[in-house]
Hints:
mainly alpha
Amino acid sequence: MAKTPTQELSLQAKAYADKQRAAKPMKEDAADKETRENTFRVTADELIGFIERQERLIAEMTDLRDDRKEVQKEAKGRGYNVGVINQIIKLRAMDKAGHAKRRSNAEDLELYMSATGMDL
C-alpha cells in the first residue's frame, strides 16, 4: 500500500525526533558553566536581598509595636482610657481622609444608637 505525502512526512518527523532523543546532549563548555553559575548567583543574591529587606521591616514593625504598647501602658498608668485614645486616633485618621466621612459615621452611630434605645 502506497503512503500518502502526509504519512511520509509524519514518518520522517518521527524518525528525526527519535534521532534527536538518541543524540547525546551537548557538552557544557567553560563559558556555558560560567554563564549558568553567574545567572544563579545573581538570582540567589536578589532573592537573599528581598528576604533580608523583609526581615528588617519585620524587626522594625516589632519594635514599633513594642513602642506603641509602651506608650499605651504609660497612658493607662496615668489614668487615661486607652480604648478611647485609640478611637480618637482612628477619628483623626478619618479627618485626614475627609471630614465628611467622619461626620457621616457619627450621624450613623447616633441614628443606630437611637434606634436601639441607647443614649450617647
